[in-house]
Design a protein that fits this description.
118 residues, alpha+beta, 6-stranded antiparallel β-sheet
């Protein structure tokens, strides 16, 4: 039983890894929402191949307010979770940099489809 659980977790982890690779490899046209591996969320303003200019919406941070008492929480050490399909962890967005622009490395940005509620 424990072996089956470990195998299932390994398959899920590999599936998420493949989703992140696909999100990073996907085209990022102007207007596309993107998420970075260091948790920035924004919209593409300009794409120059290796570098992408992003209009910042905010930066994701873990939200503990919706977790049931005693729930074990996986650390948000990477922004990969923002690119997972079918898995939507709860997070808040720090909007202190909203509206600013940043040039980001294309290899660290993935397309994402996140519902933002202000």
């Amino acid at each position: 039983m424990a072996a089956e659980f470990r195998e299932r977790r390994a398959r899920e982890k590999e599936a998420r890894r493949q989703q992140v690779k696909a999100a990073i490899a996907a085209p990022k046209p102007v207007g596309q929402m993107v998420c970075s591996l260091d948790k920035w969320i924004g919209v593409v303003e300009q794409n120059e191949g290796d570098r992408i200019k992003v209009s910042i919406i905010g930066r994701a941070k873990p939200s503990f307010k919706f977790l049931p008492r005693g729930t074990r929480f996986e650390p948000f050490d990477s922004g990969e979770y923002l690119m997972y399909k079918g898995h939507s962890p709860r997070f808040d967005i720090d909007t202190a940099d909203e509206g600013k622009t940043r040039w980001m490395d294309n290899s660290k940005l993935g397309v994402c489809d996140i519902e933002i509620h202000h």
